[in-house]
Design brief:
The chain has helices at 14-25, 40-45, 47-66, 80-104, 179-191, 210-223, 272-275, 311-326, 355-361, 377-380, 409-421, 426-430, and strands at residues 5-10, 30-33, 108-110, 114-118, 121-124, 130-138, 142-144, 171-175, 194-199, 225-228, 232-238, 241-246, 251-254, 256-259, 263-265, 298-300, 340-342, 348-352, 365-372, 386-393, 399-405. With 459 residues, it is of the alpha/beta class. Strand 12 (241-246) and strand 13 form a beta hairpin. Helix 1 (14-25) packs parallel to helix 8 and helix 3 (47-66) crosses helix 4. The longest helix has 25 residues, at 80-104. The radius of gyration is 24 Å and the shape is globular.
Length: 459
């Protein structure tokens, strides 16, 4: 059968771009369609511009801490318009690099929406052109949703619109308890907005280690108005501001209300019904370990599959797909062990099992934990503490999980993730010489009695 291309990629985010480039590198003829901007959520309106905002917010702490080290800093003044202009320019620069890399690899880019027509055919909606492809890869990502469905919910913004704000809100209510809510709440509080973080659960960051969740809640309670165990009942305009009524009858007035309560795969109007692909209960495309759908010629990677909704995971999935289908090397991605960071302030870095999950999966574990005031705080006077935690299987001495809370936790967990992925034991950690004076040296100096004496120890 004759095809126009070997691979047609629907979606120009991290996973789709990586798959297209690697497949083209193997000699495949590749075409990619993206209806918005190449780079996807992460580059255009996600982790990259958000991390730049995190950096901006952290200067507030640096200016304050400098006095303890002998610096005299005049009262700092923040200009939202400068940050927005420079942040947006950097996003545009990165987008142009993504475009250039695709073209350099020989990938043809169609700047419009594409939908599936049949097992081997896609249609470009704007031009009406149809393309026949040997293989189709769906990498369309996900979008934020406005939940819960309460009166006035459309008055709120999501993590998409937050990047379009022309002014820094004096008061902002952030609703949610996951990565996005936690990070944006930290950003706005640091930049000077009077911030309220509202979450229906009793702890932030479901699925993370409980000690880390408690440490974050304690830190955030000092930085903003943290409301746990509360839900939003409705939103209304109140003069020139917004008023959110909570389930306990209290009212929070804000200039902006940011909803970070969930995301859904972008499957509406994609054409899945035309080929008989049935989304799962979460609206995601079901795939096997090789990212294959129920249709042999159609594959999916990234957030649209709802496996592990992180940019590096989408990139690995896209790369593995290309290696398997065009490189002759059957490759899968291990989703069971993923280092990750939350760019709150202070930061969180984690890899492996939480203490609760380890207790369920293993007969006996050791818990090594250190909580301390970082060296920098001895002169700055800042009260926030660092938490480091290592979970170990008593039977094998293998490190099951590492959880960090404090400055540069995201950077640290990348290196720690290598050791844990390789199957490092606590003995491996112990015989590693410490780098002094650093916070990270605690990871290789924590001690507790042997498992044979104490099933769980705290050092």
């Amino acid at each position: 059968m004759s095809y126009d291309v070997d691979l047609f990629v629907i979606g120009g985010g991290s996973g789709g771009v990586r798959a297209a480039r690697i497949a083209a590198g193997y000699g495949a003829k590749v075409m990619l369609a993206e209806e918005y901007r190449v780079g996807g959520t992460c580059v255009i309106r996600g982790c990259v511009p958000k991390k730049l905002m995190v950096y901006a917010g952290r200067f507030a702490d640096e200016f304050e801490d400098a006095a303890g080290f002998g610096w005299t800093v005049e009262k700092p003044r923040f200009d939202w318009s400068v940050l927005k202009t420079r942040r947006d320019a950097e996003v545009t620069r990165l987008e142009s690099i993504y475009d250039a890399n695709l073209m350099r690899a020989g990938v043809e880019i169609a700047p419009e929406r594409a939908v599936i027509v049949d097992d081997h055919t896609v249609r470009l909606v704007k031009s009406g052109k149809t393309i026949r492809a040997d293989k189709i890869l769906v990498a369309v990502g996900a979008h934020p949703v406005k939940e819960p469905a309460v009166p006035g919910i459309d008055l709120a913004i999501t993590s998409n619109e937050v990047f379009e704000l022309e002014t820094l809100p004096k008061r902002i209510l952030v609703v949610g308890g996951g990565y996005i809510a936690v990070e944006f709440a930290g950003v706005f509080a640091a930049l000077g907005s009077r911030t309220t973080l509202l979450h229906r659960g009793d702890k932030l960051l479901r699925g993370f280690d409980d000690d880390v969740r408690d440490a974050l809640a304690d830190a955030y309670a000092h930085r903003m108005d943290l409301r746990l165990g509360r839900t939003i009942g409705g939103i209304a305009r109140a003069g020139g501001t917004l008023a959110a009524t909570l389930d306990d009858g209290s009212v929070i007035e804000a200039d902006q209300i940011l909803l970070a309560t969930g995301r859904r795969p972008n499957i509406v109007g994609l054409g899945l019904d035309a080929v008989g692909i049935v989304p799962d209960a979460a609206g995601a495309i079901p795939v096997d370990a090789f990212s294959r759908t129920s249709i042999p010629s159609i594959f999916a990677v990234g957030d649209v599959t709802n496996r592990a909704n992180l940019t590096p995971v989408a990139i690995r999935e896209g790369h593995a797909f290309a290696d398997t289908e065009f490189g002759g090397r059957a490759t899968t991605v291990d989703h069971s062990l993923i280092p990750t960071a939350v760019f709150s302030t202070p930061e969180i870095g984690t890899v492996g099992l939480s203490e609760a999950a380890a207790r369920q999966a293993f007969e006996r574990i050791d818990v090594y934990k250190a909580a301390f005031r970082p060296m920098k705080a001895t002169l700055s006077g800042r009260e926030e503490r660092v938490l480091m935690k290592v979970i170990v299987d008593c039977a094998s001495d293998r490190v099951l999980g590492v959880h960090l809370f404090g400055q540069d936790a995201g950077e640290l967990i990348q290196a720690v993730g290598i050791a844990v992925t390789m199957g490092a034991t606590k003995a491996d950690f112990d015989r590693t010489i410490a780098v002094h004076p650093t916070a990270a040296e605690e990871l290789v100096t924590m001690r507790v009695p042997a498992c044979t004496k104490h099933p769980v120890g705290v050092g």
